[in-house]
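Take a minute with the sequence and fold tokens given here and flag any structure token that looks odd. Thanks in advance.
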Amino acid sequence: MASMLPPVMLTLPEAQEEFHDLLRKLRDPHNQRKLIDWIKYNWREDDEESPEGILRSIATDIRLHLPIEAVLPSEKIIVPTSGENSDCDPKYTRHVDSFLYDNELLHELTAKGVIESHYCVQCGSTKTKSLTFISHSASRAQIAYMYNVLLPPLDDDKVLLDVGSRLGPILYGAYLYTNVGKIYGIEINGELCRMQREIVMKYGFQDRIEIIDSSIEKRTDLLATADIIVLNNVFEFFMEPNEQIKMWKLIYERVKKKALLVTCPALDVTMESLPDNGIDMDKWVQELDVYNMDAPDMPTDDPELKMIHLYEVINPGKTD
């Protein structure tokens, strides 16, 4: 019976030399670059020092300082009157932050009764309906999808801006998953800015992340210079429709050509809920396909992930 040979174990220099040999065999520099990108996107570590592990740790830290709904008294929530979230009756809607409470933890807390999940349709009866859960943050799964699947590689000469960064998960994800050189989070709530800065300092992110306590109206320079702008549920629950239109017009006019916009929900969904907004979507942006369809263990058909869309600005807008 033939004996099984033990696997060949390489030293680091030997592995590096074999890798260089493999790249040389590809010859085409474009394919060499694609292989390097493929390795970067598809290599996964699952420990406390991995991006996933660090984001879990950050979420644990933040949960200690916030109520479950992760909405501060200093924040004013405005229930949408149009669009797909106009049915969010405050009596039957609960704000549960998806970054802080993933589906597994949410299920555990609802099972224990810590978070209610149903309401009584008729008092004294057994008729119940499910409550609606709303989050104002991207989940950790959405963050991983955004940087590992949706976007192309972000190099150190690029600038990323998160408008309305709140707890900062988009910023921390950009730091951990990409090489993007500068990461700005602009947030109008001073308490949230302080919390973000504490996380940035604790985890040593201050070399690339900067938190700006201001409104985007006062810092249009950031819109004009950013290469990637993230707009995650940014205005809908915090502004009246006329103010939302004002903000979107500002973005429409100030972002530069070829800038990438990451939005949740899709831009057309947002614009449909804001009629007479003066924005010509067809001339302004084109939607881009997912960059890395080969990412492992990443269910790109997941409805939660499909809510996130990527656009390239093809013609900076001008409104009347």
